[in-house]
Amino acid sequence: MLNVLFLCTHNSARSILAEALLNHLDRQAPVRRFQAWSAGSSPRPGQQPHPLALDVLQHAGVSTEGLRSKTWDEFAVPGAPHMDLIITVCDSAAGEACPVWPGHPATAHWGYADPSAGDAPDAVKREAFRHTLHEIGRRLEILMSLPPAKLQKSLLQDTARGLSSH
After folding, report:
1. What angle (nearest 5°) sits at the alpha carbon of residue 127, between those of residues 95 and 163?
2. d(CA 130, CA 100)
3. How far apart are CA 115 and CA 134, in angstroms?
4. What is the residue extent of each domain of the chain?
């Protein structure tokens, strides 16, 4: 099983969508190969997943149970799950100095625009969240369809980074 950590600055939208969707898609696969988590470099005090992220996931039939905003520090301490792949999903988190991850996991950046940014009406933002979920889903389906040999530690870095252009 490959452990995947999705990172964003606040861990309220894009990384939450990616975590929930990969776990959902993997549960439907004939053989489970992935376990996803998400975290943020600097979630705000009391940060919660964005309500529109949760709404869009629920309308897509994806469980939101257990989703919460958390700091990436939770995954850099002894006893934390060992990550095989870390994917940043926002440009600001990609440019930050990350913790030293145990085991030196593969890393990739899959940048998405922030669907919660700006002062647009909720209907416009909801559509931005749906679009982001769809775009994340396209990459995750490609990742999940890769043969096991492409997901071996020695090839995982190049494989994940290659998906950033999809």
Report:
1. 45
2. 33
3. 12
4. 2-156
- CATH code: domain 2-156 is 3.40.50.2300
Spatial CB neighbours of 57, under 8 Å, sequence gap ≥ 6:
16, 17, 20, 21, 63, 64, 133
The alpha-carbon radius of gyration of the chain (Å, integer) is 15
Rounded average pLDDT per 10-residue block, the chain, 166 residues: 94 97 97 96 90 98 97 89 93 66 86 93 96 97 91 76 75
Q: How far apart are CA 11 and CA 48, in angstroms?
A: 8
**pTM, to two decimals:** 0.91
